[in-house]
């Protein structure tokens, strides 16, 4: 098959809605004609990415990421431009062959293969006579065959068969040791997982990158042995079950966050699958961003003990000034979700999930810790802490509800409480952000951008530029202008949506043309004004040439050549002043 044509790509693009595609990756909210969402290409907390259904393009007004539906999928999935076309085409039932497209060679770590092979060995072990006791243990814990298969649960044996098989498959000793599956002693490798139920840990794409091995026979060994961090396994950058949960989260429009992978598995047994786990680590900024990109509606259901409270507050601190809608579930009797379901049942847990606590109520309740409400100084301290929390609430109704609760608790009237609170308004209006996007430019840079802006907005200016200037002094501007001219000459018209598709994966040009397109310039019909900008560009070119000739003059020792250079400088200056 020949390379897919521009016309075929355009046909695919026109049959899909960019909003529908991006919504599969990022939660979106409509404001006016456009949609807005958290930008997945930088550390974003407030929606800074705008998607235009009318123009079928997206642009982040903070980091500048921009393009059409193919560019978004390419950047998000970290795949080639033509692979992105295939992904988008599949959503509308079009099969695009890309076998002939040269893909970038990616050197994959041998650890991926080591973990994949090991996982298959563990899964097979569970179905052998040796695995009978482990299967019975899982059955007692209500983990059936379907769940075992879904989470690829397996079993390590009492021998070193995994190491033997990896050796036979010619993996180096160094790589086997790097995997963390074994240790070396007396020049021999020994499997560290002995007779344990094995739970594979996956990266964001679903590739196995480690294991957690759990005892099941009441031995005195450590309850869990976990794979050490490697080049491909960074606990703080991953979330357990992410690759499975992301589809469920989009369907449920809500994500549930727990601490342990057994909590995820247990929730799955009662049909709740929009769940990820932090794998017992303190929540990191990377994990928080991954969660927010999946959904703005978040339920935290950490362990019911004091450590779970600490983890919850730590999580909330990472979402300060975020537009995320965070609710909290706190389980009684210090239980984690796995234990809670086993001891109190599915229905009791669902009651908690269906009636979570809002973030404000949870924080205010935690502030009561250690407060003596019979001590006026303690009460004053508590009131001031609560008011500080309420200052950040944009929702007037929610704020007034909490003020009423505070008034009932302390006996202070609402007017007194209100007078001691200065409400902070978070300015998250994306339209205002657009206005701050303009970068300071000198007159020459402004002239260059102004010319391109009018080429984009008025087809007639494209040929006027080509016939009367045809040169811009800044490399990327000149390259973009040349592409615009070529596009116009080839298709006899210019449309920015089609032009972005024409540029394919030229990210620098796509970002630039969409940035210029959004600038606060005037569309000119008066050619004399366009000419004035052409004149400014010529002035820049002349100044640069004079500077070069002056430097050349300083180095030249031949008298005749010095005269020639000086004459050229005079001629340029005379032409400039005419």
Mind explaining what this structure looks like?
By secondary structure, the protein is an alpha+beta fold. The chain has 5 domains: 6-90, Alpha-Beta Complex (DNA Primase, Chain A); 110-233, DNA primase DNAg catalytic core, N-terminal domain, CATH 3.90.980; 248-352, Dna Topoisomerase Vi A Subunit, Chain: A, domain 2; 368-419, no CATH class; 443-572. The protein has 27 helices and 16 strands. The strands form 4 sheets. The protein has a 5-stranded antiparallel sheet with strand order 1-2-3-4-5. Strand 12 (255-258), helix 11 (261-269) and strand 13 form a beta-alpha-beta unit. Helix 16 runs antiparallel to helix 17 (376-390), helix 22 (459-468) crosses helix 23 and helix 23 (475-491) crosses helix 25 (507-517). It is globular. The relative contact order is 0.07. The model is unreliable at 100-107 and 424-438 (pLDDT under 50).
- How many β-strands, per DSSP? 16
Structural classification: alpha+beta
Unreliable runs, pLDDT <50, ≥5 residues? 100-107, 424-438
Report the sheet with the most strands, covering strand number, pairing sense and barrel closure: 5 strands, antiparallel
| Number of H- or I-type helical stretches | 27
Mean pLDDT: 86
Using only CA atoms, what is the Rg? 31 Å
Ends: how far apart?
A: 58 Å
Helix content: 40-55%
Structural domain tally? 5
- For the biggest β-sheet, the strand order reads 1-2-3-4-5
Identify the overall geometry: globular
Our estimate of the beta-strand percent is: 5-15%
